[in-house]
Amino acid sequence: MDDQRVTIIGGGPVGAAFACALAEQKISSRIIDRTPLGFFLSDENSDCRAIALSPSSKNFLHHLGIWESIKPTVCSIDQVKTVHGPTNTTVRFDPSASDPLGYIIPLSLLRQKIAQRVKTFADRIEWVEGTLGSLEKQGPFITVHLNDGRFFKSSILVGADGKGSFVRKLGAFETIEHPYGKDAIVCTYEHKNNHENIAWEIFREDGPLALLPMTHNRSSLVWSVDHTIAESLREASDEDFDQILSHELSPYLEQSKRVSPRWIYPLSLQFVDHSAKEGIFLIGDAAHVIHPLAGQGVNLGLRDAATLAEVLIEGAQVGLLLSDSTICQKYERWRRFDVFSMILATDGLEALFSNHNPLIKKMRDIGLKMVDRNKGLKRLLSKSAMGTLGNLPRALKEKVS
Ligand SMILES: Cc1cc2nc3c(=O)[nH]c(=O)nc-3n(C[C@H](O)[C@H](O)[C@H](O)COP(=O)(O)OP(=O)(O)OC[C@H]3O[C@@H](n4cnc5c(N)ncnc54)[C@H](O)[C@@H]3O)c2cc1C
Predict the structure, then answer these.
(1) Which CATH number is correct for 2-57+66-74+103-177+268-354, 3.50.50.60, 3.80.30.20, 3.60.10.10, 3.30.1240.10?
(2) Dihedrals phi, psi of 134, to nearest 5 degrees
(3) In 102-251, beta strands by DSSP E
(4) What residues of the chain score a pLDDT lower than 70?
């Protein structure tokens, strides 16, 4: 039995959802995470980030039996307004007749709901609290050694261990990294006026600012600024911080109050040359980290998870070993276009809007006006953000209301 098992390092939203997708199809797995499952289940699991789940992620979570428990906690996005700060050029994205553009949920709640589902699969998902120390390949098997001396053998190893992935390092995956020299300031605001389920994407001179509508008339603010500004905001007292933000962001935060601590995340672009080799697969942030301006990191990771589960399940059905090279190649080929187009889109937008050349600024403005007037192009951009473009794994296509 051991040789058919899958070892997953990392039980964040992507690794845990992947284990559930395998468990649905009766494939057992072992998640190794340095954090106990009980922590993700508890309310101590706090993280100020709010996640914009795309409609295709909703379909996947529904397929895994998680969406029903998530549904009461999300706020749908009924409209996205993209504003070019200095000129106030606005592009408005409206939902299709049937689907909102996305759903906002606190990351801590998303983790908790997925962890609850993991718990119901106790016969198929083993959660091991421990930290990966090293790995060793022995014929068709991979053995992972934990820092406390325990070791586990399996057919394949899946690195879902986030941005600083140790699996990626031990597996010698070539990694391309570009720090943006910017940090994201994240906090939650409560509005006096109704936010009307509008998400704002504001391209300011100092960096993009997103306001994501949440339940209870709150919005999550994600503001990317130069590292030095972020550092001074980190050092500022609560009073100074609030004063600076309400002055700087007054058009968007009018009559609103900060109701959460402030969190600061360093931003970088990171991706790998290959996302699978010799029975080792990378999914989620372990494989790619993108700028959060489009709110797509978890969505991209959930698409990795659904795709890898589908190719493994199909491979097992036709009698292939899970580590078979055709499975590795199929996963990698299938994910390549989606991942790289999202990297190009987010990195390109970041570069385009942080460029202060007057000619580029003018072209940006003309471009945005053109997008706003072109319904076909707007539909294409919406579909890309909604994760409904291209060849999707089955679990992402099953539409739910
Ligand atoms: C400011 C900000 C805003 C964002 N907003 C959005 C958004 O709106 N929408 C969106 O889709 N995405 C968003 N993202 C991206 C999103 O947060 C990430 O893509 C996502 O959390 C990655 O999930 P993951 O499961 O791949 O990794 P993680 O959540 O990082 O999980 C990794 C897990 O691996 C474990 N681990 C790590 N190393 C080891 C080890 N050696 N041994 C054992 N366990 C280990 C950790 O304990 C952890 O549980 C945002 C990111 C930022 C910074």
Answers:
(1) 3.50.50.60
(2) -160, 170
(3) 102-106, 125-129, 132-138, 141-146, 151-154, 156-159, 175-191, 198-204, 207-214, 218-226
(4) 1-4, 85-98, 347-389, 399-401
Nearest to 131 by CA among 164, 107, 172, 179: 164
| 8 Å CB contact between 183 and 264 | yes
Closest atom of ligand 1 to CA, residue 300: 11
Query: What is the C-alpha separation between 386 and 282, in angstroms, rounded?
Result: 23
Task: Determine the pLDDT at residue 133.
Answer: 97
Tally of residues, the chain: 401
In degrees to the nearest 10, what's the CA dihedral of 119, 123, 125, 126? 90
**pLDDT number for residue 18:** 98
For residue 217, how many other CB atoms are within 10 A of its CB? 16
Q: Reduced to 3 states, what is the DSSP secondary structure of residue 252? A: helix
Among 18, 45, 51, say which to mutate for ligand 1: greatest number of ligand atoms within 8 Å of CB.
51
pLDDT of the residue at 1: 34
Separation CA 395–CA 291 (nearest Å):
26
pTM: 0.90
Residue 195's φ and ψ, nearest 5 degrees, are -80, -10
Helices (H), ranges, 67-203: 67-70, 107-120, 166-170
Cα of 59 from ligand 1 centre, angstroms? 20
